[in-house]
Write a structure and sequence with these properties.
Layout: E1 2-7, H1 10-25, E2 30-35, H2 42-51, E3 59-60, H3 68-86, E4 90-94, H4 98-109, E5 114-119, H5 129-140, E6 143-146, H6 149-157, E7 165-167, H7 171-184, H8 188-192, E8 199-202, H9 207-210, H10 213-226, E9 231-235, H11 238-246, H12 250-254, E10 259-262, H13 267-276, E11 279-282, H14 286-294, E12 298-300, H15 309-312, E13 316-318, H16 324-335, H17 352-365
Parallel strand pairs: 1-2, 1-4, 2-3, 4-5, 5-6, 6-7, 8-9, 8-11, 9-10, 11-12, 12-13
The structure holds uridine-diphosphate-N-acetylglucosamine.
Uridine-diphosphate-N-acetylglucosamine binds at residues 9-11, 38-41, 44-45, 65, 68, 96-98, 129-130, 205, 237-239, 242, 285.
């Protein structure tokens, strides 16, 4: 049973790590990793392989950055060659990045079965690149592994037959459970001079927020307001950094008193920072889930979420209009002690990869 696991961008690495560990541990499974190279540098990729205990990828396509069409087209051409040679029993993709959809299309065209982990999530916003990636990937994959109830409902509404869909929980939470203790041993808080709950943690990288001047100015206003209460640790994504420079806003950012600007952080350092933050402000997909598991309040700078359980039962709040005044009000409210308690969704327990391996083992033994 040869499984070819696909990774391309940062949020994929923590999802594939527990699956690769689980497949490798089991008799009868062979697990290989293909990295498309969408994220390619030390901080966005290599550090995750090291910290998550992933081996060097078996295949590296070296696609790098570029427009979405460029990335997908080049992945497709190179992946076709790998598939011809490798002939796996199953291609396994995770999440919603460009690598996910590009490799799924090629695999299905060539007659290989595909498993999609984190299937069924829908924001309803088709202007998000990830939403199109999710819809296309789900509609042609053979085995759909779902993290939360909304995913089951969405796939049923779209007419996906029940026997293709498996409710298994969240592999990203598997990584979090596995590495939480190791993360706690990291020295990042001392290194930057903050204590538990003494800071607000922030990340921003969605094109809708950071590819335009207004979005970036709103983000800066929010940081300026937040810094009146607590220090703000801002882990700055390369897209955001590039755009701050492009719109000549870097000086305004650096002038904010109480701000601790940082580049992209390693998995363990960022996990420790999340676990000890008083509040997290983000527009990430995955951080909404991680904060729900950790029960840390999260303000998500987006109109919609494909992960509604994080809002309905978790500790996440959606900041529907990107208005700094509204965000500040909500932030103050939380800092004054009015955060939600939060409940962790079903099967977010560290065992999702094991459930997935059980299903795959069973299906392929028939
Ligand atoms: C991608 C994913 C997004 C995910 C995010 C996490 C898609 C459609 N988007 O967006 O879902 O939330 O990753 O980070 O797949 N860059 C570097 N070093 C790297 C990689 C990228 O500097 O190792 C730069 C690129 O040159 C580019 C920018 O970062 O300027 C953005 O990279 P890109 O691949 O376009 O996607 P993300 O915005 O990171």
């Amino acid at each position: 049973m040869k499984i070819l696991n696909i990774v391309g961008a940062r949020p994929n690495f923590m999802k594939i790590a527990p699956l690769h560990r689980e497949f490798t541990r089991r008799e009868g499974f062979e697990s290989k990793i293909l990295h498309t190279g969408q994220h390619y540098d030390e901080k966005m990729s290599d550090v995750f392989f090291k910290q998550l205990g992933l081996p060097h990828p078996d295949f590296y396509l070296g696609i790098g950055g570029g427009s979405h069409t460029y990335q997908k087209a080049h992945v497709m051409l190179k992946f076709e060659e790998v598939l011809k040679e490798e002939n796996p029993d199953l291609v396994l993709v995770v999440g919603d990045v460009n690598a996910t959809v590009a490799t799924t299309l090629v695999a299905k065209k060539m007659g290989f079965p595909v498993a999609h982990v984190e299937a069924g999530l829908r924001s309803g916003d088709r202007t998000m690149p990830e939403e199109l990636n999710r819809i296309v990937t789900d509609s042609i994959s053979d085995y759909l592994f779902v993290t939360e109830q909304s995913g089951m409902i969405n796939l049923a509404k779209e007419g996906v037959p029940d026997d293709k869909v498996f409710f298994v929980g969240n592999v990203m939470v598997d990584s979090l459970v596995h590495f939480r203790k190791k993360a706690a041993e990291q020295s990042i808080l001392e290194d930057i001079g903050v204590g538990k709950e003494e800071y607000i943690l922030m990340t921003m990288h969605r094109p809708a927020n950071v590819d335009n001047r207004e979005g970036l100015e709103s983000i800066l206003s929010i940081i300026e307001d937040a810094c009146k209460h607590k220090k703000v640790v801002f882990a700055i994504h390369p897209r955001t950094k590039n755009n701050l420079e492009k719109f000549a806003l870097t000086d305004r950012l650096n002038a904010i008193e109480g701000l601790i600007p940082m580049g992209p952080l390693g998995y363990l350092q960022f996990l420790k920072l999340m676990d000890n933050a008083s509040v997290i402000i983000t527009d990430s997909g995955g951080i909404q889930e991680e904060t729900t598991f950790l029960k840390v309040p999260c303000l998500t700078f987006r109109d919609t979420t494909e992960r509604p359980s994080t809002v309905d039962i978790g500790t996440n709040f959606l900041m529907k209009d990107l208005n700094p005044v509204t965000v500040y009000k909500q932030l103050k409210d939380i800092l004054e002690g009015n955060a939600k308690q939060g409940v962790v969704p079903t099967y977010w327990d560290g065992n999702a990869a094991s459930r997935i391996a059980d299903v795959i083992g069973e299906v392929f033994s028939k």
